[in-house]
């Protein structure tokens, strides 16, 4: 599928694995961390203007609302550039959200698109059947000038999910399980294709969470076939001008994995690699100081609804700081209208404006030496959420919410 | 191009969060980024890099974030090249784009020890461990990538291409 999208965007009938193509991109994305560097390189190229002011997207989401003076200066570089070049899709505080939740919500990415972003989790849009991938700031600078970028055509790993997922299991559990299976470099340079009967039953939110973490297995793309749900999602954003690419029946795959979802229990990835996936119930007594429910992986409605279902009428443990971060303003508003925010606040959680914040140890929930968090985020590397001697356990929303109540890692059955 | 220097050796899955922690990403000043390079992995890096300017890593070097600050901080620290068994995709792109030479060799990564003196011949794709006398061949890079490197990075390459087309 990704191969067909790359061929389509480089004016070719067919491209071969390993071939380097110069392809036209539909969206070029950057944030407050990567865009200032891209803007500096953009200026050095000396082209003067962007290739298309509707296709460059800027979202200050990492250290915003500005956490310190230096971050404020970085954001100012974006704001000024956006003004100067009339960047339509610059999203200021108040309308912004975490970029990978925001772009699909705004209908800015559609199936069949080729998208690059100076953020590794740009692979999220694979859930829409787009070929999208993270690149660096120089790549973004070049693409802002030319509208094109070089790509090496990847080989593909196919994942076929069957069986019925159990209670509380979401896409996050499926992807943690999968990364545990193949390792943090199991899909290095490759495209991961997610398919099978169980995928049809997954919500779009769960599919976004899975595509989002393709990079944690080293993947270049993490892509789903477009089905009814995908089309409904895009149409709900008022979009009908999308292209659908399907894998050929005789497509060649480097490897095919068959995974029975009925075998997958609620997952937790222990420090310090996302591939350290374990069954949550088997972890033993892991005491916690903080829970974070949010991020570009799991800050969507499905995640908040699941967390609220568990937290309703209960209190988080006294010693637990529990931070809930709706991924976009729209999700925040919907959560408010549905009464979820009231449930969270009554449970003793804090609810934050959209930000990447604690996921990368930026702000809004940084850990001290020796502290431990459970988080619905995507990385648990050394020092990821704060002090290099702190620890992050990754999970889906159900385990994170239940663990916030218990003060240690538990499955929902232990608290409800 | 020949690079001759001593080695700092690290293990598998050296991620971008330990190369340059996100808490320092509120700047794009290279010297400032370099002052925090590898801070969470190796507190002695700043001392080591004064005498040793080649890094040898294991598998999946540079995994994680897309931050170009990672190869930039390594380069600004004075490191001249990295040898590893494999590199994470975005880190690999970023290093090519910013002109930090990377060499993939499982054998060299296994064999070369911390503090060994190594000579890298980029043009001929050869790594020689002077301390042990062992030599390792590295497969040549695709033509396009060699062009980008010889231009001094992707930004300069693009500037040249745009000038040609005018």
Key words describing this protein structure:
heterodimer, A: 416 residues, alpha/beta, Aconitase, domain 3, seven-stranded mixed β-sheet, five-stranded parallel β-sheet, 14 helices, globular, B: alpha/beta, 8 helices
Gyration radius from CA atoms of chain A, angstroms: 20 Å
Lateral arrangement of strands in the main beta sheet of chain B: 4-3-2-1-5-6-7
Number of domains of chain B: 1
Q: Report the average pLDDT across residues of chain B.
A: 95
The CATH H-level superfamily of chain B is Aconitase, domain 4
Mean pLDDT of chain A: 97
Given this structure, which CATH class of the largest domain in chain A is correct?
Alpha Beta
List the strand order in the largest sheet of chain A. 13-12-18-17-14-15-16
Shape of chain B: globular
Write the layout of secondary structure elements.
The complex is a heterodimer of chains A (416) and B (166).
Chain A: H1 2-9, E1 20-24, E2 27-31, H2 35-45, E3 56-59, H3 69-84, E4 89-90, H4 99-105, E5 114-117, E6 131-134, H5 137-146, E7 148-152, E8 156-162, H6 171-182, E9 191-195, H7 197-200, H8 204-212, E10 221-224, H9 228-236, E11 255-260, E12 267-269, E13 277-279, E14 290-293, H10 295-298, H11 301-311, E15 321-324, H12 329-337, H13 340-347, E16 350-351, E17 372-375, E18 391-395, H14 397-406
Chain B: E1 2-9, H1 16-19, H2 30-34, H3 45-51, E2 54-56, H4 69-76, E3 81-84, H5 89-98, E4 102-104, H6 106-111, E5 117-121, E6 126-129, E7 134-137, H7 143-151, H8 154-165
Parallel strand pairs in B: 1-2, 2-3, 3-4
Antiparallel strand pairs in B: 1-5, 5-6, 6-7
Helix pairs in contact in B: 7-8
């Amino acid at each position: 599928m990704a191969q067909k999208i790359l061929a389509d965007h480089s004016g070719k009938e067919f491209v071969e694995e390993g071939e380097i193509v110069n392809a036209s991109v539909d969206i070029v994305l950057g944030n407050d961390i990567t865009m200032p560097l891209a803007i500096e390189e953009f200026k050095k190229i000396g082209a003067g203007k962007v290739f298309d002011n509707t296709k460059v997207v800027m979202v200050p989401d990492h250290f915003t609302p500005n956490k310190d003076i230096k971050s404020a200066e970085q954001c100012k570089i974006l704001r000024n550039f956006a003004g100067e070049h009339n960047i339509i899709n610059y999203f200021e505080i108040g309308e912004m959200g975490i970029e990978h939740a925001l772009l699909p919500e705004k209908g800015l990415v559609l199936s069949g698109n080729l998208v690059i972003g100076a953020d590794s989790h740009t692979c999220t849009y694979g859930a829409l059947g787009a070929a999208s991938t993270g690149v660096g700031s120089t790549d973004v600078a070049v693409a802002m000038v030319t509208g094109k970028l070089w790509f090496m055509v990847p080989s593909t790993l196919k994942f076929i999910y069957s069986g019925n997922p159990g209670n509380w299991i979401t896409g996050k559990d499926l992807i943690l399980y999968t990364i545990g299976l193949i390792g943090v470099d199991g899909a290095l340079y490759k495209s991961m294709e997610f398919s099978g009967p169980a995928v049809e039953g997954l919500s779009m939110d769960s599919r976004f969470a899975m595509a989002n973490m393709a990079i944690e297995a080293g993947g270049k793309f993490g892509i789903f076939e477009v089905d009814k749900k995908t089309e409904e999602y895009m149409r709900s954003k008022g979009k009908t001008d999308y292209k659908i690419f399907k894998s050929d029946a005789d497509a060649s795959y480097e490897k095919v994995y068959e995974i029975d979802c009925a075998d997958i229990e609620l997952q937790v990835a222990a420090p310090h690699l996302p591939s350290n996936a374990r069954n949550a119930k088997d972890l033993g007594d892991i005491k916690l100081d903080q829970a974070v429910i949010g991020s570009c992986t799991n800050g969507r409605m499905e995640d908040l609804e699941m967390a609220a279902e568990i937290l309703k009428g209960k209190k988080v443990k006294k010693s637990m700081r529990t931070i809930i971060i709706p991924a976009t303003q729209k999700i925040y508003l919907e959560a408010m209208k549905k009464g979820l925010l009231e449930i969270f606040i009554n449970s003793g959680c804090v609810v934050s404006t959209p930000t990447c914040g604690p996921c990368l140890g930026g702000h809004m929930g940084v850990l001290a030496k020796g502290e431990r968090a459970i988080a619905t985020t995507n990385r648990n590397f050394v020092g990821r959420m704060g002090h290099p001697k702190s620890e992050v356990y990754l999970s889906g929303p159900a385990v994170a919410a239940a663990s916030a109540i218990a003060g240690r890692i538990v499955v929902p059955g232990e608290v409800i | 191009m020949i690079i001759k220097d001593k080695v700092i050796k690290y293990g598998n899955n050296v991620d971008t969060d330990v190369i340059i922690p996100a808490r320092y990403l509120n700047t794009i000043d290279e010297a400032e980024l370099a002052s925090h390079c590898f801070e969470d992995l190796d507190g002695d890096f700043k001392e080591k890099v004064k005498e040793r300017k080649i890094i040898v890593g294991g598998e999946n070097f540079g995994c994680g974030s897309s931050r170009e600050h990672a190869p930039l901080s390594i380069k600004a620290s004075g490191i001249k090249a990295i040898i590893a068994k494999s590199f994470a995709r975005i880190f690999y792109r970023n290093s090519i784009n910013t002109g930090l030479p990377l060499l993939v060799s499982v054998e060299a990564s296994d064999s070369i020890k911390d503090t060994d003196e190594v000579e890298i011949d980029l043009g001929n794709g050869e790594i020689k461990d002077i301390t042990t006398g062992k030599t390792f061949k590295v497969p040549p890079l695709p033509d396009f990538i060699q062009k980008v490197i010889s231009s001094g990075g992707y930004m300069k390459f693009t500037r040249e291409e745009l000038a040609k087309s005018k």
